[in-house]
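Ticket #4471: structure output looks truncated?

Reporter: J.K.
Steps to reproduce: submitted the chain below (53 residues) through the standard prediction queue, then opened the result file.
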Amino acid sequence: MVNLREKEYVYKSWVNKYWIKAQKDDFFEIFDSVKKVDLVTHLYNDPGKSFFI
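Returned output as attached by the reporter:
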């Protein structure tokens, strides 16, 4: 996940340059979902953070 976040701009620019619209939409939806799952996982597991936003 750290690698994904560090290179997010690179991945998104590559997708915008080379993929067709339908593929882009799917990629960005999945990418955002993965980031949300990571956030919720940290909120649930990290001490001192509240799971309820």
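Triage note (M.O.): checked the attachment and the full token line is present. DSSP finds three helices and no strands in the chain.
Status: closed, working as intended.
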